[in-house]
Fold each of these.
Amino acid sequence: MRCDQNNISRHESLNQSSERSCKMYRNNQFLVSWLLPFVLLVWGTAPCSGQEPLNPLDSTNLPSAPVPNQSNQQPPSALPEDRVDQGNAGSSPLSLTLQQAESLAIKNNPQIEAARLIAMAAQQVTREARSNLWPTVTGALTGVDAQSGSRITAGALNNPIVYERAAAGVMVSQLITDFGRTSNLISSSNYAAKAENQNAIATQQQILLAVGQAFYSALQAQAVLAVAQQTVQERKTVADQVGALYKNKLKSELDFSFANVNLAQAQLLLLDAENNQNSALATLSMVLGFPDMQNVQLVEQTSSLVAPPTDVNDLISKAFTARPELLSLQLQCEAARKFQRAERDLLFPNIRAVGTVGDTPLGNVAVAPSPTSLNNTYGAVGANVEIPIFNGFLYTAKAREANLRAQATEERILEMRNLIARDVRTSWLNAKTAYQRLSVSQQLVEQAKLALSLAQSRYNLGLGSIVELSQAQLQQTQAEITYTQAGLDYRLSLDIVTYETIGIR
């Protein structure tokens, strides 16, 4: 009986202590919910007494991000110019739009200049082929001292008699006809020069596309950097608030640790964003034709976004008539056909008129019979016909080789058409997807902001945990970055569709 009474009294005491604990917990929760706004207000208006809680992950303790090397050149007064210098480290960056970047690339990029010079060199090949239609005039001065009465008896077949003499003359040779070989060579060279012009245009458009890609990549890095900076500020504010509450025993050490972890993640994001921005600016400077990274501030386009084209087959048809790569191959095919005909024409005769005139003021009486030097002139005209008879099937092999190369060029045209159709269709699909991502990413940002606001309110009222708040902050940061990238990705996708269809003009 005594043991049962002891057990009953012990259970009653435990129940009373449990009721007192629950009552104290409800009182503490009620006290925290009413005192928390007052503590935050006091903390925001006056510094807390005593030592601040140690936060080793504060941004003031982190090393500063590396900055690019700055040159000592002075920046120009306006853009675009032939050169944009980086300026001193303390100088403010210069604003650069996409159109200004394209103008700079056209002026400074060495690939564009190299393609232009190659196209100009191809035009000279046409002049080289056309030179066969003009007369060939050659002057000659000859002085000979020979043994009297001697003859050349060894060597090739020639005139064996050699007379001492001093003479001057002019020889003229004019092509009469080679049965179309020269005209076909001229046409082939002309088509090849036009093909090089199209290659130069294609090179310029590829550089302009690379400028757009580098420009939008740099804009994305710039936007992500701004989001990262804002994230660091917001999370530092939360970490400081939690630290103040932890110091006043209103928050647990776990909450304080989670807040510092979130701040550290934001600081790492900031470091990565700064590095990505410097890398993107270095790539953009390279595409613009500068060896050093330029100190510029990129200006985003403010034009409204429009939906992508609806008919992809119409885009493919336009690409078949406008793409310089395809036009270049078609011109190369015409050049190969003309060259094949020129090689075939080697089998025909070559008729050329020749003439010579001169004077021999001094010499043997056999070549200068008159004692007066003015009477020792000579002159002759004639025609020379070269008829190929047999050369080991050289000309037929050349004609066959040129024909096979022309057929190979025709096959490359078919391959290029297939590649263009695929590229246009792929870029069009990517543009449609990027356009759809705009609205989805915007909804994502709105929902992430709402979730963060609710999580912050719940945490301030003591209804939510620090884990819930951290997850909401992370989702809000990712949503902001996704939305920023979605708009720039869509603008870039539209530029790619334009490039694949008619080229960037």
Note: The mean pLDDT is 81.
Amino acid sequence: MPKVQRKYDKGEKRFKHEGHSSKPKIQFIRNRPRRFVGKCPARMPAQLRERLLSEAIPGPIGDRDIDYPKYPYVVHDGAIYEARTSDAGTSYHGFPYRGKLSKKLLEQLRRMAEDKKCLEACDEWIKRHIQTDGRQ
């Protein structure tokens, strides 16, 4: 099967992950402390979103029988972003991530942050928003 080029598709009328400030953040839902939404910086340019998607590291696919990355991850200005596909790997939308990541993926993301000169901010994001999954 030919490899499909990833493209960014925010989707029409999809505003859930759009923030109002210049920084990415995790916004908790009022009266539901376990529910949260990753909010991107306001007016994040389409060209930047495309570039970040092209740099993204594919997350593990587990036991799924698919030939595309379901959840690619990237670091930008210290924040970790996750992208998701809704059409079998043709297009993706992304947002700041909070949750569990494997040690191996975290090591790769930290190397990316080091290359991008934002390791200190990335370590702070990890400390505040990431749990280490016991898997490699």
Note: Strands lie at 7-8, 25-29, 32-39, 57-58, 72-76, 79-85, 91-96, 99-102, 130-133.
Amino acid sequence: MRRRQLYSGPCRAALVAVALAAASLQAAGPQPRPASPPPSHAKPVPRLLIRNAMVVYGNTKPAFGPVDILVEGGLIARVGRLPAGSPPPDAIIDATGKYVLPGLINSHMHLQDERGGIPQPLQYEMNLYLASGVTTVRDVGSDWSKSKQWRAESNAHTLVAPRMLVYSRIWANKGMAPGQIREGVRSAKAEGVDGLKLSGMDRDQVEAVLDEARLQGLKTAVHIAVDETDASDFAELGVTSIEHFYGVADAALDGIQDFPPDHNSSNEIHRFGRAGELYIQRNLNREKLSAVLDLMIRNKVAWCPTFSIYEASRDVVRAQNLPWYREFLHPAMEEYFRPSLANHGSYFIGWTNTQEVRWKKNYQVWMDAVREFANRGGLVTAGDDAGFIYSLYGFGFVRELELLEEAGFHPLEVISHATVNGARLLGMEDRLGRVRQGYIADLIVVNGNPLSNLRLLTPGGADVNVDNQNARGGGIEWTIKDGIPYHVPTLLRETREMVAQARAARGKKAGS
């Protein structure tokens, strides 16, 4: 009986061709798998491979490589070549000629969705921080109810943002008598704060808040005011970190700072003008200053100097004309920066050359003190405090790294301040801050070698020398948080669009 022919003509010819091709492949042996694609922006990847990277480990170890880094389930699964027969990655980042660093930790910042009462998208700030390689932030002062929600959304990856640890001042809501302070600290703990933000207060108040914080297992950060207490009091009583420069030199004076009779500390022109003279007081006792640093080190008090936030005080014209303002300065921030005592940090009304000269000299002594503190074993971290005083998110953080180098730190030390040291400050050194197997996959992929020029970390890159010709280079290509890759050029494009839309809306409103 003849077999029925199911296919004929062109259809049968096609099937024959497929069969012949399959036979040919089988004869040729196993075929190479198709190359894995690059990752998609802001999309989780089950197995992400970063290939051929030079690695800056995080703890001042010199760079090494090229090596591969495998990310699985949000963790660093392997640093080194994959064994033969390993399952193929779902996506690959080709890091040939690039450097990979741990995600950077901003130890002093503020979550902001408005400036001076003018709305400004939180996503604007978050994009700029991610674009500068920041994967973790320590917020030290914002609206608690909002920041609590933003923290949850960041942890759930429904908000494109760095990881957030929120240090709040809600502990002070119960009152400032010692008993009320203790009640407030317990209440803040129950609310879920990650730590407490403190500012200047009397000695008995400091004793109450720091003792109760210790009992509740809460870390603390203090912005010391010109007050009854100084760095010696806070270090003696167990604060976790001292922010900025206040309080340290105060504790090293023979007597007090020389304030003129008309000084008004509520007037920011007065306050910031005189702050720039603190480290150059005639009665600064260098032996006392060293003793204060030793006390801080002995009691494990970290120092987050935030050099970049005050830099406008030593050169306001430079600060007012930074090149990234052209594309990235949101109108709300632009308005906030205008000299006006109505906005904190906008004190440049009639700012003088004499004030700038004093600030420049102040920086020299301050930087020397921070360097001495680190040389003796003190923990220095990196924070920008941006959103004030002409400092823009992300850009200000990279500038902080540059100023740490100006203070005398090697670029490898600078990177450690923003990675390993930041993780230690947060109590997360067992899972953050290093390119290490088993650690959280917070990583940044940089176009070029930031150890040769920290400016390469600037969002959008920097001017570089190519065969004695000026060219644009550097910049971070990918910021990876919890194993999720964020494409920095995409983040910057979105941010430009936010700024352009806000400027257009402002122009339309002004013209109506």
Note: Residues 1-33 have pLDDT under 50 and may be disordered.
